[in-house]
Amino acid sequence: MPPSKSTTTSRDGTRIAVYDYGNPDAPTLICVHGYPDNASLWEPVAERLTADFHVVTYDVRGAGTSDQPSATSAYTLDRLQEDFEAVLEHTAPNQPVHVLAHDWGSIQAWHFITDPELQAKSASFTSISGPSLDHAGYFLRRRNRAALRQLLHSWYIFYFHLPWLPELAWRKGWAHRAFNRLEQQDAEENRSIGDYVHGMKLYRANVLPRLIRPAQRSTDVPVLAVSPDADPFVTTPLQTEIARWAPNLTVKVVRGGHWMPRNDPGLVAELVRQHTREVAGLEA
Known about the structure:
alpha/beta, Rossmann fold, 8-stranded mixed sheet, 42% helix
């Protein structure tokens, strides 16, 4: 059954498209997608979880049918947090929610769940292939082999900071071919050129400031960090060596590539189901 669609408005006036998979009596699970995806990434996962959760997805600003602000400054993590808070108030204002996020969705969600006010509204967090940028800043300061290996995997981040060339490459199709060689995925029909072009502002607004001046952001929220072992973009140590910041941490290294929610939605659904049951004190 397709989700119902509605719109909520963030603090700065940005309209956010929200998709609700029903089951309002169940615990709410809010799913946050990454780059260059939109909320459709979560459809196969949501379909497997609607018996257990009130599943909510949304198009992050710049993606899907949400507004696409033109200013890079409109894509800071604080603005993204305001979007999440608007979705939270719109769909589950009176209960803690579970959070499932992937890629840049996880980067955002780490910012949310390390905010003292939002921690109280977060029952659990399942993170796939996405670190906190602040935690990454401290990780890279180690200057060891693991940090160097992650820098090599992160080459594309520096490329996205170049003027006009990355946008041209997406529009002409060159970048699609290059990135698809790294990990084959068949999802172009669910993405628009806007998802690719506007989403790069996420990198430009946040990465360098956070890596240069990372904040000490911690959380008591129960976290499941899922690291696919064949991820070409995010190494396992960056995602999992975070007990300093998230003491209530569970780590799962699984077989697969970066786009797990699309390529193995059944496994993602099962990991979420197990984690949330363990958090609730139930038998997994």
